[in-house]
Amino acid sequence: MKKEKKDKGRLAEIRELRTLLPYLHKYRKQVVAGVIFIIVTNVFSLLGPRVLREAIDDLAKNISGGQLLFWGGVILLVSAAEGFFRYWMRQKIIVVSRFIEYDLRNDYFRHLQQMSRNFFHRVPTGDLMARATNDLSSVRSLLGPGIMYSTNTIAVGAGALVIMLLMNVKLTLIAMLTFPIMAITVYYAMGKIHAIYENIQAQFSRLTTRAQENLSGIRVIKAYQREKYEIGTFANLNRDYFQKNLSLAKLEGVLWSLMGFLSGAGALVLLWLGGREVIQGEFTWGEFVAFFAYMSLLTWPMIALGWVINLMQQGTASMGRINRVLEEEPDIKDTEQTDFSITTIGGEIEFQNTGVSYPGRDWALRHLNLKIPRGATVAIVGHTGSGKSTLVNLIPRLIDATEGRVLIDGVDIRRIPLAVLRREIGYVPQETFLFSDTIRENITFGLENGTGFPSKDFNEKPVLTAAEIAQMRKEIEDFPEKYDTMLGERGINLSGGQKQRTAIARAVIRQPRILILDDALASVDTHTEAEILHGLTGVMRERTSLIISHRVSTVKDADLIVVLKDGQIAEKGSHDLLLEQDGLYAELYRQQQLEEDLATLE
């Protein structure tokens, strides 16, 4: 029963490699050529001992300068031919493994780009990075050296064994006595190596995640003086990673040493018995040397088999980890219900009895009904946790409604192609993210033809206009490099307000049909806020705009103000109407007026 379970486990490990079949099929010509070169290489490799046998026996009869030169030339020619085809064997197989690694890494990254936000909330970034680097390198080693040396082992092993049997059956069987022990050792080592390597890769993911989080949150760590604690935590994780690798190294050391010992024992027996046959005249010196050479050719693949098995187990374990990610289906995607005839949207938005719930939490939105006319400016206010960001995240389908529907232009949002929907939306999230690139590249990031425009074709005017609307143009032009100023990680060399305004410019330059500002003015002062809103007036007049803000000054001129409380609409109306109702909005207004008066007194 235990053996049956182990065999099923081995089959499951092999099934992990099925993902690689399409990639191997893509490069099948190079793979076939590589296998042919392996066979030809081994033909010349097996020819070498034969030539050596003939040379020794011939020279034993009569040695002359001409004979030495002839046999030396033949041996050199055979070695050169073997080296030539060995070069092309490596060129084909190893290069193919690099191409497959390249394709697989691209496909892995493309798959991650399709995943929804929930996936990245669930899977640590460091873990995904470890799979994209360390695991993919192990898969490449499986496809390159793994395939090459395993094929080479089979070819040279089979050839040498046949020739040895034809030369002397008795000596061959004696020489093969240690091989079953080698085979059993390799079989049992396979499972242990696979399990240990899976643990190593999992620990490497934890180590990478910890390092990534520390580097991203270095300012928080320094502010709370947690450097010593984090150094200790990282050291513990690193120690575990070291110990797991040490366990693998010990197992590999035992495996290699045992294989070497067993092959040496076989060679010693062969030397003793074969030497006796030479003395008795049953074997010529040339035949004995050739037989011993074939024995070496057969022994080395058995020793190398341990290394090949190690590569294959590591590659299989790594491919399994990559498969776990590739098997994840994005929960937000185009389906058979998607209407690909829709190529643009107008901007009318309607929420019909919409609700959103998150796993392990209460409803973030519940029974929400709201219709936003095309071209209207709607402000959404409410206390922290009232569901404001959840509401606007439904529009670009960053999340999907748990109940009810969201319509755009009267069409269920799930029927609109994702590419069309998101192309027509300019979105500035609460947490501003800028890339480590120039300011120009960050502003033009959302344009359909991407960044990296050739200077002769690039139209600078939309960038200048977007920066002007976001009240960022003057500050950018004060930088020495202006729009070519390189930003640090997450735009670290800009202030919070400058980052938000750059993000606003990035949204505005797209000229979207729907503009969403999720608390996008929180980091700017009231004067700059007024300037930005003034600049946005013309932009918002032409498109549907949703503004989330805690400041009444930001939202008071909106066509409609929606007040959320506990995921439901508590109030809605114009600024003046809501003040007359003397509800939550009026309370928020009076509180902010008081804060402004106190600030003036100070």
Mind explaining what this structure looks like?
The protein is built from 21 helices and 10 strands. The protein has 602 residues and is of the alpha/beta class. It has 3 domains: 96-326, ABC transporter type 1, transmembrane domain (ABC transporter transmembrane region fold, Up-down Bundle); 337-387 and 397-424 and 516-602, Rossmann fold (3-Layer(aba) Sandwich), CATH 3.40.50; 431-511, P-loop containing nucleotide triphosphate hydrolases (Rossmann fold, 3-Layer(aba) Sandwich), CATH 3.40.50.300. A hairpin with a 2-residue loop joins β4 (403-408) and β5. α3 runs antiparallel to α11 (285-326). The radius of gyration is 35 Å and the shape is elongated.
Supply the number of helical segments: 21
The major sheet is characterized as:
6 strands, mixed
- CATH level-3 fold name of the largest domain: ABC transporter transmembrane region fold
Question: What is the number of strand segments?
Answer: 10
Structural class: alpha/beta
Strand order of the largest sheet: 6-7-8-3-9-10
What is the CATH superfamily of the largest domain? ABC transporter type 1, transmembrane domain
Q: Kindly give the count of domains.
A: 3
CATH class of the largest domain: Mainly Alpha
Mean pLDDT over the residues: 81
Question: Low-confidence parts, pLDDT < 50 over ≥5 residues?
Answer: 1-8, 450-457
- The residue fraction in helices comes out at 55-70%
For the termini, the CA-CA separation is 81 Å
User: Would you identify the CATH architecture of the largest domain?
Assistant: Up-down Bundle
Give me the Rg, rounded: 35 Å
Strand content: 5-15%
